[in-house]
Amino acid sequence: MERHQITGHTELIGLMAYPIRHSQSPATHNAAYEKLGLDIVNLAFEVDADDLEDAIKGLRALKLRGSNISMPNKTIVHKYLDEVSPAAKLCGAVNTIVNKDGYLIGHNTDGIGYVQSLKDNGIDPTGKKVTIVGSGGAATAVQIQSALDGVAEMSIFARDDKFKDNAIETVKKINENTNCKAVFYPLEDLDRLKEEMASSYLFTNATGVGMKPLEGITYIPDASFFRPDLIVTDVVYSPHETAMLKMARKAGCKTMNGQGMMLFQAIAAIELMLGQRVDSEYMKEKLGISYVYTDDDED
Ligand code: NAD
Question: Is residue 212 among the annotated active site residues?
Fold first, then answer.
């Protein structure tokens, strides 16, 4: 492994989460710093909710430029910050802290990453109708940012579980705070799902369905839900092609997985913290990211 030459000038940016050792995030951020010629290293710190307040005090005391934040800290870290961005406030979650001379600002770049990955793939839902399934953290970020960025109509579906009220709350927030008109539907109503998908420009799975332990599974009953000009995206990044994306691709739809969202949320976080934007094409190549599935020959 090539090592960054560490000197007295080297700065540190951390990722605070638990568990976190499996995360690809430090590798992504370090690759970006290297490309930008920045004397900064990014390390993962196992920080859970009990240690978070002390860790944020440490960030202030050590004058770190900022921190990346993941679960379980995303929904509680705002308590220890000086300000939270409007999008992060609406999402109820922070994934990026920017330290501006001791003043800590929380942002959420998950939704920004999703919208930027669409644009990077020539998909622009501005002024159009979208259908998004999901009620958890990823879904909320995608739904709120899409509404803030100009989607005209959004049908949000979620199954009846402990997350369902989040989706109902998200619909309320979108209708009260943006120009987008959002409606909630139960995911159990598959006839309605089919109708809403039929009148949408874009359909998105923003649940964990399709990823381990739900790999190979989809709540879409059959390919008749997909018409060829429907764009179908998934926030799941592993496997690269979920069962739903495969069904959609075989039905002729343009599809996109969650790898782009993951990359562009990091690029946006780096830009917020350090004021510089790394070249996304370089990052895709460096990290072996291919978020548009093109292998038509595969089963
Ligand atoms: P979460 O635990 O906050 O929410 C889970 C969601 O999945 C809820 O909406 C829940 O209702 C739904 N769900 C679970 N089982 C279901 C089932 N059998 N049928 C229908 N819905 C079901 O999780 P999260 O943080 O929102 O993550 C969701 C997915 O998004 C995960 O696969 C995660 O890896 C992915 N994700 C991707 C990115 C990215 O950058 N691409 C970022 C964050 C999360």
Answer: no
What the chain holds in terms of domains, given with CATH numbers, is: 11-108+266-287 (3.40.50.10860), 111-257 (3.40.50.720)
Token reading at 93: 């979650």
Spatial distance between the Cα atoms of 174 and 116, rounded to a whole number of angstroms:
20
Do β-strands 103-107 and 96-100 pair in parallel, antiparallel, or remain unpaired? antiparallel
94 in a labelled binding site: no
Residue 183 Cα to chain centre, angstroms:
21
pTM to 2 decimal places: 0.95
- Report pLDDT for 297: 46
Provide φ and ψ at 36, rounded to 5°.
-80, -5
- CB-based pocket (< 6 A), ligand 1: 110, 113, 134-139, 158-159, 161, 163, 187, 207-209, 211, 214, 219, 235-237, 258, 261-262, 265
pLDDT tens-digit readout, 53-109: 999 999 999 999 999 999 999 999 999 999 999 999 999 999 999 999 999 999 999
Please report the atom of ligand 1 found closest to the CA of residue 258. Answer: 41
Distance 209 CA to ligand 1 centre (A): 7
Which residue positions in the chain have pLDDT lower than 70? 1-2, 294-299
3 state SS of 105: strand
Of 35, 74, 164, 172, the active-site residue reads 74
Q: Around Cβ 200, how many Cβ atoms within 10 Å?
A: 22
Helix (H) or strand (E) holding 262: helix 259-274
